[in-house]
Amino acid sequence: MKFTFYGHACFSVEMNGKTILFDPFITDNELAKDIKVADIKADYILLTHGHGDHVADAAQIAKQSDATIVSNYEIVTWFQNQGIEKGHPMNHGGSWQFDFGKVKYVNAVHSSMLPDGSYGGNAGGFVVYGNEQTFYNAGDTALTLDMQLIPKFAKLDFAILPIGDNFTMGIDDAVIAADFIECNKIVGIHYDTFGYIKIDHKAAKETFKKAGKDLILLDIGETIDL
Fold this sequence. Notes:
Elements: E1 2-7, E2 10-15, E3 18-22, E4 44-46, H1 52-55, H2 58-65, E5 68-72, H3 73-80, E6 87-90, E7 95-97, E8 102-107, E9 124-129, E10 134-137, H4 150-153, E11 158-162, H5 171-180, E12 185-189, H6 201-210, E13 214-216, E14 223-225
Parallel strand pairs: 3-4, 4-5, 5-6, 10-11, 11-12, 12-13
Antiparallel strand pairs: 1-2, 1-14, 2-3, 7-8, 8-9, 9-10
């Protein structure tokens, strides 16, 4: 699976001929200054919650790509009111079969407010089932016992977890989360963008290694096969 990191919590995956983009926050991310939003194309944009550092570039990319926004009901409705016609609302515990694979919307422990102060519903994460691989994007979240439910309905090939601390779980809690979801290949997100969430990359990788897990930290703009 082709995986491209755009900084913060934004990344894309290519599945079954479709490009799925998550939480686009590029224009206002100084660390992603070399990424051109106008060049990004997506078939689907999945949004975990409504904060500006997860939805800032969603409207532009949706319009230029004719992409479908997938998120909770409140966020999808908010974008539709701005003229984004293609949206698919979900809510916690629900799943839907898209043309690229099945998506299940799962719990996250975090706040959610849209950039204009509108109610953003409850934050969530996504389990995405493809023909060959299944992965979990936790979104912004604290460590939660709900993560223990995920192995009951998904055998994960890899997972995307926030590791920056302060606003989400940090490194130590992310190691426990990896145990809860029974996945040892973790891509880290939501770190370094702001002063509050800067991390020591070497120490973070070593902490995961000591726990028998692999923490992948990508450069912004880097693409790898997972």
